[in-house]
Structure formats: C-alpha cells, structure tokens
Amino acid sequence: MPLDPKIAELLSTIPTPEVTSDPLQHRAMERMTMNTLAAQLAEPYPSDVHRTSVTIPVIDGEIELLIYVPPTAGPHPGFISFFGGGFRGGSVHYDYVDGTCRERCLGANVVVVSVGYRLAPERKFPSAVRDGYAALEWVANNASRLKIQPDALMIGGQSSGGNIAAAVALWSRDQHGPTLALQVLEVPALDLTGQTNLTEYGTGFLFETAEFEQIQLDLFAGPDDAHSPYASPILATDLRDLPPALILAAEYDLLRGGADRYAERLRAAGVAVDYRVAPGQIHASPLMTSALEAARTWRDTVIAALKGASGTQKAAA
Description:
The chain is of the alpha/beta class. It has a single domain (5-310), classed as 3-Layer(aba) Sandwich (Rossmann fold), CATH 3.40.50. Helix content is 38%, strand content 21%. It has helices at 5-11, 23-41, 95-108, 127-141, 143-146, 160-174, 209-219, 256-268, 293-310, 312-316; strands at 50-58, 61-69, 76-82, 111-116, 148-158, 182-186, 245-252, 273-282. It has an eight-stranded mixed β-sheet, with helices on both faces.
C-alpha cells in the first residue's frame, strides 16, 4: 500500500533525525522530539488512573517501576511494559510513555507496571534484559501487594521495548520463571544483527539505518553479542512453550522483516500468534492517535488483546 498521505505530509515537515554517539545529547533530542510529536499528534491521555513509583534492586544497582492502577476494585491482571528508545534513550517519564500506560490501564482494566530499565552505552547488553526479568520476578512475587492476579501476567513493549519483552519471555521460560499469559510486541526490534532489516525503509521514515548501526555500537561489548537469542530473539533455536503473542508491525519500517520472520517461527513452534501489519504506516505511527485512524486501531487492538488474554473481556460480558 502507498505511504499514508498524512504520514507523507508529516515526513515532509520533519528533518532527518540527527544521529550522535553522545548519549546525553541523544536523549535530550529524542525526548524533545517524541514529546513534541505526542503533544501535536496524540489524543489527550486519561488522568483518572492512580500512579505510584517504587524502586527495586537489580544486579549492580536499582531501577524505578511506575505502577498504574485502574479505579475499579482489584485484583486485576498485570501488564509489564517496556518503553522504546533504541536501548540508548527513552524513559518511563516521557509524556507519551506515561500516556500510553494510562490508556492501557484504563482501557483494559489492568495494572500496568512500566519498567525503567537502564540504558546503553552506560549499561551494555544484557543489562536491560536482566533488569526486565528482575522486574517480572518482583511483580510476580509482589502480586498480592499490587492486587495483581498472579495467573494473569502479561508483558510487552514498543521497538527496543518489544525486543526486551520478547527476550524476557524467553529468559523466563528458560529459567522456569513466572508464566506469562501474553506477549505484546509492537514495532519490535527482534533481530539486532540487522540481517532481516528492510533497508529500503532505512532512510526517510524517521527510524534510520544510521540510528540502528549506532545502537549496535552502543549496546554490544563484543562482536558476538548480537547473535545471542536474548539480544535477537529471532535467532533462538527453540521457540516452543512461549506465551501467545500479539505482534504489530508497520509496513514502512526498517524492522518489519524481523517481525515477519519471528511471527513465522513462533507459529512453526506451535505458539499462538496474532500478527498484523499496519499498511502505509511507519515506525512512529502508533503514537499519532489524534492524526491517524491506523494509530487508534492499533491502540484498540492492544487493549482488546490485553482484555482477551487476561479474561477481563469475558468477565465484563
């Protein structure tokens, strides 16, 4: 399908993102860009959600979790969420990250736990995955305190967060950790070797090949790290017994090739997969809910999946 005309118009007004190896400069530019896009192109986010912050210990430090609780009486299903940002940026405190958590908390009637995993290059692979698994274990161990149903834990993320969610699901299976009811992978980076990247979409669509290559430089300490299944879940030799997956990709996204292949491999391993490609859309389309019908459909698809996997849809019927 041709590029969505609204996306084409938007791209004509936004300069190509500057790629820098300076992490502080990168994060400042990214935060300004993403918060500006959300302010201009996202629908207002709900406010009637209770949010608290906790700090939990992890290897060599600690991380922050933001916990979003719906106004209805619990216990509720739990959704552990990982923000995007190319492993080098992003934060649980970005406006659109906070707003998306609020939308899903209220829309799906679930407790959302947003994970403040630590970033590269200060923290190399597999730090983010270890942080993510520590968050999953902490939530599972504190389910009663959080008023979360322990048998209705779900996980998900966007872009690099989708990578972390998929890797944590693999890690939890391999470590016989908490059972997950669903994994939600949105425009996920599932192949950090770059072998499945669709290079025809690597320039001019906001997420660039140059940025992907900088991620590789910042994230990995050694040349073989990208080939670990916890860095590139698409390379795992065994994908059996993983949680059901909702995988959402954008047609004009450098990363779609990895999503295509991962969905195929999960199905071949007997994992239930709902794989959808948003036609005419780009990597950043999902946050543009006031501008794009496709973004609103995307949001509603995720909320419906969270309801369905957790059983809240049946309970409400």
